[in-house]
Amino acid sequence: MAPMSFDLTTWATQHRAQLDAFLHDRYRAAWPPAFDEALRYPVFGGGKRVRPLLTLAAARALLGPEATLTAAYHAAWAVELIHTYSLVHDDLPAMDDDDMRRGRPTVHRAYDEATAILTGDALLTDAFRLLTEADLPPHHIVDMVRRLTDAAGHKGMIGGQVADIRWSMAPGGLDALTALHAGKTGALIRCAVELGAVCAHANDETLTRLADYGRLVGMAFQLADDVLDAEEDEGDDGPPSFVKLLGEEETTRRAHQMAHQAIDAVRDLPCPDALIALAHFTVERTV
Ligand code: GRG
User: Fold this and answer.
1) Ligand 1 pocket: which of 54, 124, 184, 226 to mutate (most atoms <8 Å of CB)?
2) In this predicted model, what pLDDT tens digit does every residue of 148-186 receive, in sequence order?
3) CA 27–ligand 1 middle distance (angstroms)
4) Which residue ranges have their beta carbon within 6 Å of ligand 1?
5) Which of 52, 55, 184, 196 is least surrounded, with the fewest CB atoms within 10 Å of its CB?
6) How far, in Å, CA of 158 to CA of 156, rounded?
7) What is the pTM of this model?
């Protein structure tokens, strides 16, 4: 039975600490020493950990608050490593050319460009290794590898990034922008939820419900992000944004509507408290 009230801050703080402890030693191998440090720099760099928390929340929704989530920690970290690599590469001079992320120098500024490229490559590769280390039946591992490959690759995040880069040459309408973000941001967030469900041995019907939740929360996350970034993204040169197409009020309204639809998709699951709280957080956050 789920507790009546759920405190997202306490739960998230606990799980962030456990997530960090879980991966603490992974990039501490003696060779090559300086590269170890570069690998740890973005992984333990102050991210909100929204995606891995979604994986753990999805597993909790099916297994209950007392369940051991070891397999889900593997999946959660696999998703977070993909997210982390995408940020490292997105900051590179050939992409967004950013000097700062999360209040400190980006990896290519703290180290150098080659190190940043290789750090991203190493994290991307290790994500799949981590999935294979989860204590799950082989068909579940294969299923997770396929889902993560689709979400991170050309059908998902990379496809969305390519569409984003091309946007300034040929801007599109609302449907094109929605497709762009369903790939660039949405696919990995949806996958984070799906992997939690796979780790909890969800049946097809439950997986579909959780995938719906992930799709809606992923899009709500992006709409909220566009509102948060609205001021700095103003002007024709800025990135494609829902606020530019819909205005701030309508973008906010749609974000909240999607978060509520997401909650409706999962509210009948055995222990949906963390999923519900994360859907609210997605659209109410200030960072
Ligand atoms: C360059 C390989 C490659 C992919 C680029 C995801 C992505 C695709 C680029 C990252 C830049 C960006 C603005 C992505 C949109 C998704 C997004 C809002 C990322 C920030 O996610 P948060 O807020 O970040 O979860 P933290 O820092 O909390 O981890």
Assistant:
1) 184
2) 999 999 999 999 999 999 998 888 999 999 999 999 999
3) 22
4) 47-48, 50, 86-87, 89-90, 95, 102, 157, 161, 184-185, 225
5) 184
6) 6
7) 0.95
